Structures are given as structure tokens and as C-alpha cells.
Amino acid sequence: MGMYFNTAQTMLMAQVVNSHFANDVNGGDIAHWRNNRADLQNHTLPQIADMHGAHGADYPLGSDPGGAIRRRWRSWLTKLEQSNNPNTGNRIGKDIRDYIHDGLANANCLEIVFAVVPAAAVSVDAPVDYPLATPAGSVGRLITIHTLEIDDPKW
Q: Is 91 helix (H, G, I), strand (E, B) or coil?
């Protein structure tokens, strides 16, 4: 079966990635990413994941024995990196990196949330900034990725 659709491992992966970009007051690490946002312009998605630990190595209690989840995660990031985004004409990896980078450049953006949606074709939507309850003027950023399953031959 595919890589990213509500298996125990994929739900945990979504939790891991979203925790990296969660508000610091909620236990997230968005400050780390804000301080290192230049990496988003100089490296690919798989390189960034490796550099900043946003992959299967983050799983608790050795829940990725042999690294199979990490390999599939890295494969998915590589495929995203290389795929064209029909919404912009850019590579999807570039769009994702730009959307994250721009969110981090906004001091009022306190969290970035990723939603991954099963789809018949791969794309990423323009980000949606939404107001947060506190502090006044703060926003979160939603990045929605539409994706094939990792083993789909259409990649």
C-alpha cells in the first residue's frame, strides 16, 4: 500500500513534521526553522529533512526498525522535489520550500501546518494564512500537498 494515507506510520510522520513547524509555545520548533530558513533556498527537500532531522529518525522508541519508513519518506520527498506543480509551472519542491521560507520570513507567522491529501495527480496549493487567536495579529500557514501514493506508477 502507499506511503502517506492514514497508516500508523504516516499519521506519526505527519505529527513529526507538523511538530517541527508548530508554535514554540506549543512545544514546536518553528524558531529553529526561522533561524535556518536560508537552508530552504539552498537545498532539496530530502537534504533539508536530513539536515534538520525531519524524517523517520524522529520516531519514538525505535518504531522505524531498519529505517524502512525513513527510506520511503525520503523517496516521497525526492519525488515531490522533482515533480512539476501544475498550479505554478514550478517544481513542487521549489514551491514547498518557497512557501515555507515566506511563512518563516513573516514574524507574525507562528506555525506552519502541512496537510497531505490523496489525489490522482501531484500538486501543491498556494499557502493559506489564517488568523490565530493569540497574540493579536498572529497567523498560521497551511500548505496543502496533493499526492499520489508512493508506489503509484504515475510518479
A: strand
Amino acid at the residue 96: I
Q: Angle, to 10 degrees, between the axis of helix 92-105 and the axis of helix 68-82? A: 100
Q: Specify the amino acid at residue 29.
A: D
90: left (phi over 0), alpha (psi -120 to 50) or beta: beta
Domain ranges of the chain: 8-147
What angle separates helix 92-105 from helix 45-52, to the nearest 10 degrees? Answer: 50
Q: Select from 28, 18, 48, 54 the least CA-distant residue to 36.
A: 48
For the stretch 83-122, pLDDT in tens is: 999 999 999 999 999 999 999 999 999 999 998 888 899 9
Length, in residues, of the chain: 155
Chain centroid to CA 21 = 9
pTM: 0.87
Instruction: Enumerate residues 6+ apart whose C-beta is below 8 A from 59.
Output: 12, 16, 69
